[in-house]
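A.,

Following up on our hallway conversation. Structure tokens first:
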């Protein structure tokens, strides 16, 4: 599975009531998808697109390996002292990047893997977020992005409650994404 397509984005925006001539240009929609994807990556540090990573530990000892980058979508090579490990030699927790090795090992560890969010996370979290970020770009222009909280007839003023606005919901989802895939790891020296 992949990122949202221009056709899917167009359908989502039309369902939200957006009718703009920009929706007809597939190149502009793709540019919006690319822009919002870059914003999500910059704001969260999450690998929406695959990134190849390589780690080398010259004096590895143990039966547990914690990768520096996670989540992990695929292991392309995993060697200890030049001996290739197979999927049967370890259990991988993809979300946390932790490898539980079946045996205790000593030696030089060289691992190559693909650092990327899972397809389910992209479909359930990233694609709806991209769609809402683009929608916000279209709806924020009228500067009425909150719910009406009060109307004063004598002065003809309208107040908007922006606490549950689309913009605030977007930033809450971005913060949730950041906290879902970040943790503090403590490594003992010695």
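Then the amino acids I'd put at each of the 190 positions:
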């Amino acid at each position: 599975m992949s990122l949202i397509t221009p056709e899917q984005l167009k359908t989502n925006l039309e369902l939200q009531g957006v009718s703009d001539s920009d929706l007809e240009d597939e190149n502009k929609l793709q540019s919006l998808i690319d822009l919002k994807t870059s914003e999500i990556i910059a704001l969260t540090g999450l690998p929406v697109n695959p990134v190849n990573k390589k780690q080398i530990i010259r004096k590895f000892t143990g039966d547990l390996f914690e990768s520096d980058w996670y989540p992990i979508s695929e292991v392309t090579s995993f060697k200890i002292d030049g001996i290739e490990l197979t999927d049967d030699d370890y259990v991988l927790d993809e979300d946390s990047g932790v490898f539980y090795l079946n045996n205790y090992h000593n030696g030089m560890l060289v691992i190559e893997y693909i650092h990327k969010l899972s397809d389910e996370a992209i479909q359930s979290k990233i694609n709806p977020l991209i769609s809402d970020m683009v929608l916000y770009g279209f709806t924020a222009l009228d500067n009425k992005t909150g719910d009406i909280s009060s109307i004063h007839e004598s002065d003809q003023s309208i107040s908007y409650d922006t606490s549950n606005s689309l913009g605030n919901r977007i930033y809450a989802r971005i913060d949730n994404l950041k906290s879902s895939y970040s943790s503090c790891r403590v490594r003992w020296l010695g």
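The chain has four helices and seven strands. Curious whether your intuition agrees with the design.

B.
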